[in-house]
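ok so I'm stuck.
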Amino acid sequence: MGTPEFAVPSLRVLLDKGENVVCVVTQPDRPKGRGRKVLPPPVKEFALKAAIPVLQPEYIRGDDFHAELRKFAPDIIALTAYGNILPGNIINLPPLGTINVHGSLLPKYRGAAPVQWALINGETETGITIMQMDEGIDTGDILLQDRIAVAPTDTAGTLSVKLAALGGTALGKTLDLLRRDKLKPVKQDEKQASFAPLLKKEDGLVDWSQSAMKISCLMRGLDPWPATYTTLSGRRLRLFSPEVVDKHSCQKNFSEPGIVCRADRHGLLVTTGHDGCLLIKEVQPEGSRRMDVHAYISGRPIQPGTILGP
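replied:
not stuck anymore, here's the structure
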């Protein structure tokens, strides 16, 4: 069970290992992009190429879907970023239960956006947890964990790719250990639990009074979606590729946060509340594509002293 690109490596590993994948369950095809063209989920595309039956229920809590899934008689369900909360009758359907590939080191960052929130909060390490699912939100017993360092330049996009690959490898390892009865489930420590709720577009509004590092972490965590943004002359400007620079790089006469010190081929250098300035190397103006700052200011120069934000 899985839906986005993040789940594809998990399915690929199962097939590469020669597992008998009896079916794939994924979300229904949805409209995407500016043209709102109806497109299949990445997991469906991969499954169909491998000639695996695909189920796309609109409603997973009804008896109809439970009966349809039961016909496949699965020994185990492996779930990676499916996008729906499973009811107990699905979780407990297979004899070996349902295991979940989660993109954090549980119990930290339970929820729908663990990769993004790890970056937003400035984590230097994250990882994959394989857990035995129960009816809570990522509360099941831990079966296996693999760790990975967070690079200073990682975004939610780049880190997701790394974790997806790690998740596939960890899933394969978990199945091997389960067969040999070598895994001991470990209860999660509720005192260490934290949550990673879904992000909204409004979460991307930059507060320039915050520290340069905090804004940088937010930019990386929200790249590529929903993206951080500010306003320039009343129009929204999305911001990407930040670099924290020493405060001495900013002109001393610009002491308030959110002021452009300079705009050149290196990027936009903007004052923040404290702990340095922020060099922003890529932007996306309203109705246009993402581009480097040099390309943007070639058509629309930004003068030193320009104020960003409301």
